[in-house]
Design goal:
The complex is a heterodimer of chains A (151) and B (203). Chain A has 6 helices and 5 strands. With 151 residues, chain A is of the alpha/beta class. With 203 residues, chain B is of the alpha+beta class. The longest helix of chain B is centred in the N-terminal third of the chain and has 10 residues. Classes of the chains: A alpha/beta (151), B alpha+beta (203). The complex binds iron/sulfur cluster (SF4) (4 copies).
């Protein structure tokens, strides 16, 4: 492994930048993501930082079943994120539509129809610990040795 | 000068350095009362479908027949971990957190019934609902193709040009009639009440 790659690995393992988007949730999962930022769960001690700017994000947390307004915009946001990148679906909504997956509902889940999803965290809403461990277990899989895997 | 020396000495203490770089908040453990996905207790499921009836989330639970035994299966990604199925199951097949303990302590339970309603402006009196109903056919195997019946014990029958609902209380909420109705005229409503036994004993 080249020295450059090992430096990149070390930096990336301690600096995961997260952006989250709500594509039509009930706000329950947003609150749980918010709880991750609060001192009790303290997401920054694991080297995860929330910026909410797709241009500097590594990980995109997608929350909510997809409402019509998001169908074209979700892809745009995903493409703004520089590689290496990963999207994680938070909650039942982006996986199955949760309680909104009914006849006559306007939402069009799952989110994986629009962007590639690296991991799914089921729950309505999932616990902050479940969200944290999902980010922490996905990040090394995607970011470690990224350049070497590309070549 | 003395204070600078003091600070440098203080910050060079190995313990301080170690804490500064490596301290973490205590690992978070899931509390034992956390209401997770329902798990099987190992008791025998009778296949009464009460759990599926009460589940508020689409496609979250299915009672499947495995060889000779019924068994409920919960699907993460659909299940919202509300615990209603755990509380509603009469056989104690499912467990989640302390749902069953609390229900026993407070002597609470769910009572459910089904309400059938036919929209007269949509119904075209074909009798499909009466014929397709599995309970109806059990009660009156002679049930005619037009939904007429000579038995007064059936849930519903077509008589004098209308669907008459006779014994709503026998309905099991399977919604077969709803799916067989070509014009969406019949509706099965699930009525669930939470009840508490005041004398503290479950009946
Ligand atoms: S999964 Fe549940 S809590 Fe999360 S956004 Fe959907 S409905 Fe709300
Ligand atoms: S816990 Fe609630 S959502 Fe999950 S299967 Fe049971 S009744 Fe359905
Ligand atoms: S799990 Fe309980 S409620 Fe569900 S079908 Fe079996 S016995 Fe009935
Ligand atoms: S819901 Fe099922 S049991 Fe009830 S009336 Fe309809 S077919 Fe019969």
């Amino acid at each position: 492994m080249s020295i450059l790659q090992s430096i990149k690995n070390a930096v990336r393992s301690r600096s995961i930048h997260v952006s989250y988007i709500d594509v039509g949730s009930c706000n329950g999962c947003d609150i749980e993501v918010l709880a991750c930022l609060a001192p009790r769960y303290d997401i920054e001690q694991y080297g995860i930082y929330v910026h909410n700017n797709p241009r500097e994000a590594d990980v995109l947390l997608v929350i909510g079943s997809v409402t019509p307004q998001w169908e074209d915009k979700l892809r745009n946001i995903w493409e703004k994120i520089p590689a290496p990148k990963a999207a994680i679906a938070i909650g039942n909504c982006p996986i199955s539509g949760c309680v909104y997956a009914r006849k006559g509902s306007l939402t069009t889940p799952p989110v994986k129809n629009y962007i590639p999803i690296a991991a799914e965290v089921p729950g309505c809403p999932p616990r902050p610990t479940e969200i944290l461990s999902a980010i922490l277990s996905v990040a090394p899989l995607i970011f470690k040795d990224y350049e070497e895997k590309q070549s | 000068m003395r204070s600078i020396v003091y600070y440098v000495r203080e910050f060079l203490r190995p313990e301080w350095l170690k804490k500064f770089f490596f301290v973490k908040t205590a690992p978070l453990v899931t509390p034992p009362y956390f209401k997770g996905y329902p798990t099987l207790t190992g008791k025998d499921c009778t296949g009464c479908f009460t759990c599926m009836m009460i589940c508020p989330a689409p496609d979250a639970i299915a009672v499947l027949r495995r060889k000779e035994q019924w068994e409920p299966e919960v699907y993460p990604g659909h299940c919202i971990r509300c615990g209603l199925c755990v509380e509603a199951c009469p056989e104690g097949v499912l467990a989640s957190g302390r749902v069953t303990d609390l229900a026993r302590r407070d002597a609470t339970a769910f009572w459910h019934s089904f309400h059938l309603e036919v929209d007269e402006s949509l119904c075209m009196r074909c009798g499909n609902c009466c014929v397709s109903c599995p309970i109806n056919r059990q009660i009156d195997p002679q049930l005619a193709g037009t939904g007429t019946s000579t038995s007064d014990e059936v849930i519903m029958r077509v008589s004098s040009g209308r669907v008459r609902i006779l014994h709503e209380e026998k309905c099991t909420g399977c919604k077969t009639c709803e799916t067989q109705c070509p014009s969406g005229a019949i509706r099965v409503a699930r009525m669930v009440e939470g009840v508490q036994f005041l004398d503290g004993v479950e009946s």
